[in-house]
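Quick entry between incubations.
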Amino acid sequence: DADVTQTPRNRITKTGKRIMLECSQTKGHDRMYWYRQDPGLGLRLIYYSFDVKDINKGEISDGYSVSRQAQAKFSLSLESAIPNQTALYFCATSDPSEGGYEKLFFGSGTQLSVL
Amino acid sequence: QKEVEQDPGPLSVPEGAIVSLNCTYSNSAFQYFMWYRQYSRKGPELLMYTYSSGNKEDGRFTAQVDKSSKYISLFIRDSQPSDSATYLCAIAAGNKLTFGGGTRVLVKP
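Done. Structure below.
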């Protein structure tokens, strides 16, 4: 069973639509992250959360919002999707007791296409 | 200029060859150096982690860091088709983690 589960795996939507990507984890980690991956650009941080009451913007948070519903759940929303948000989205977790935030554990990703 | 530069490849090698990957970085404050491996349509997984200059070995994998040149490398000995993947370097300073764009590697049987 996957430790970090993302749903859906694939999503096609239209410009202007609101969509939500969901992430759940069974690793018991407090820290959770949302990244997007674009060809040649590597992974870029959208938002991160160090516990249920903590939400922080990453380097590319514009156009996105997040909700930390529980220690194990962290969702990413696109309020009004636009085509340049087409990308592969990853949720990740980390636990300082396992060496610090740098050791990330990723889900399998959600491929989002905005038409 | 990107803070972390990595050749996108693809890098194609025959089975059994040594794979050599590298990244350069510009911020001398970077302290921690990692390599992640990513198979197609999967999330990256941590392969190697180091915080000092020099070499670190783990089986067929060797990570090398040269802080004076701001240059890190990953070597894969006796490469196997199962090593075909994208390899991303990741470098951290404080709370900031920066990924390279990844190098795609193809090991041909």
